Amino acid sequence: MNPNSTPLNLTVIGAGTMGHGIAQVAASAGLKVTLVDADLAALERGRRQVDENLAGAIQRGKLTPADRDRAVANLATATSLADCARTADLVIEAIVERLDAKQALFRQLEALVPPHAILASNTSSLPLAKIAAPLADPSRLIGMHFFNPVFLMKLVELVVHPRTSERARSVALDVARQMGKTAIVVNDSPGFASSRLGVILGLEAMRMVEQGVASPADIDTAMELGYNHPMGPLKLTDLVGLDIRLAIADTLAREIGGDQYQAPQLLRDKVARGELGKKSGKGFYEWPPK
Ligand SMILES: NC(=O)c1ccc[n+]([C@@H]2O[C@H](COP(=O)([O-])OP(=O)(O)OC[C@H]3O[C@@H](n4cnc5c(N)ncnc54)[C@H](O)[C@@H]3O)[C@@H](O)[C@H]2O)c1
Prior knowledge:
Bound molecules: nicotinamide-adenine-dinucleotide
Number of strands: 8
Oligomer: single chain
Radius of gyration: 19 Å
Helix content: 40-55%
Shape: globular
Structural class: alpha/beta
């Protein structure tokens, strides 16, 4: 294919909360998508979620069965990178929020993808320049930060580090638009424009639970009805995943400093007990709600 045209072959790596959602929306938008996860059970779970989301959209009258069939035909799955990476125009990584894991994956990818391919990370907090540092060509790496659930949330933050190329920026912008998203461009800085503000609210809400100020439900209702937030910060933390929130808080505490990003003990304890939010059945709430 012409390397200067809009990329049509998308590889999404990580089939968890974010990866399956990105794959679903991209396949629905007409891109040819391969969803990859190293863990077969996670891959099957992600694939099932896509099917459930599409079925839900049909039930709500948001999607026709023919649209569903087109999306399904555009979506393949794999447990190995080797084949799909070779034909990828764009790779979006949505694996665990750990710098070493992301650096290792992108180094591996660089040896597999064609020279024109753009590499994107869905990281919520890690510095893009650090993720790009070990690459032979760091200019091909950009942040594409989607929001959860991907099929509902309109925003994509494009995060550019000092060496991100114009081409990476324009390809990412083009794909975000094709996926029906509104993109903002943010310079590489800890937590970007979104997590840096949003995480503070979540952590403060947890400190309020620790201090017995009010129940999680009442704190969430305060923000929903008093400030017109569509969802309170603790319910949102359950949807994001408590482990993910903790990883982001630790990154921001390290990168920005100060007390405001220090993770409350309550969050650390819940993560240690496996109370990760919706994905594990319990966080600040029980899932599914009783
Ligand atoms: N959860 C959110 O609301 C949210 C929102 C925006 C961005 N993010 C970011 O997206 C990324 C993924 O978060 P998530 O919540 O989807 O995580 P998750 O734990 O739900 O899923 C991660 C998946 O990646 C797979 N994986 C891990 N290492 C892999 C590798 N080397 N190769 C292939 N697969 C691998 C795991 O098996 C797992 O299925 C993180 O960087 C996170 O910060 C998360």
